[in-house]
Predict the 3D structure of the following.
Amino acid sequence: MHPVIMELNDHEIRLARDAEIILRSPGYALVNGGQVVLGEGAVRQSRLRPRSIHDQFWDRLNEDPLKTPAGSHRHHADLAYSHLLDMHARIGKPEQIVFVVPGKFSNMQLALLLGLAEAAPFAAAGLVDLATAAIAAVAGAGEYVHIDIHLHNAVLTQVTVADRVRRGGVQVIPGAGMGAIVDSCAYAIADLFIKQSRFDPQHLPETEQELYNQIPACLAALSSAGEYLMQIAHGQVQHQVRIDAAALAPALEKHYQRIRAAIPPGRGCLLSDRAAGLPGFAAGLDCAGTLEETATFLGCLANLAEICRPAEGKSMPYITSLPRTESPRIHPKVNLTKTRHPAASPNRTGITHVLYRGQAWPLANGPLHLGAAGGPPLAAPSTSGCTVNPTPAGAEVRSLDSDTLVINGKPAPTPAQVAPGDQLAFPGTDTSYTFINVTG
């Protein structure tokens, strides 16, 4: 039987058996006296009991004393060890685990991780770099940057693919992780509630917790070119706001810009499923492809003999180079050797419809006239809005009253080319349209 594979991304640690994910557990711990709640259970109480929450023990894996009491846990390594034991027990106590670790881990942290495994009731079967393992199942010669989003930072890993996949430099963008992204979204959504219903969900811990609970689903909906209706009950009243990508674009873009600015020139980007799931993030990137959430596990399974080879000497090797293997599990299915997709025209089919608040209008007989005030497409041009003409690759948008439009949260000169999934907004309004492709 193959060992269980653990992908150590503290936003959501994943464990898989034969590429099937069997457990997801975020790097959170709620410690109240002798009681410890780990993973998702702690996340669901993070706004109710913020002083009892610890969420940096994987990012700062060390033996420095904790600044706030955590029961019998003295330092971050103690909390990480408790989390390891909890996950190990929840998946049936396997005998061996392969650790897939992000390149941001220092040598000291790698040694400490192996020390925790040595004290645990399971054996560390291997230690491999996360980006290397994920890309090993992709193939396609070239130079890339693997982009992944962790809880407290983004990690950019340079990778060269030839006969082998070899990891190069690693850059960490602190403060650009999912924690900060979700916080920014929470403030933006709370402002929408206040403006529309004079209800502040962040005023009470219970309603703030419900707000945070719904943000992952909201981001998932927006990343698939939709919108999200958030409802929060307070007393006898059900408060709700309808959220589209334009509403969160300013909150998200400030984080995206920091990540994009750090990408080395001349390299196509391979996005983890976590990075690709952020609405509008891929816009402006030279995106070579999006990795599925199982990519890391497929890469490990194809190379278990090399990853789990006996250590020479006392220390277990940290694998940062693996043979290049073939796998169809990358989307879109592209030849990574020469692919360079510009922001608005990745490997996607043309636009068939314009989406506004859950309703779609066909573009086949275009042009369509979109009003800055919102609503369905107009029968004739408006003095405030734009026209949309279909093109083979997508559509051309031309403003009628401005030099710029807002596309995917960023100002764009008019006329602008758009592709499926792009969002169009108008400066100074909350109006947003999404361009989509409907097949079948």
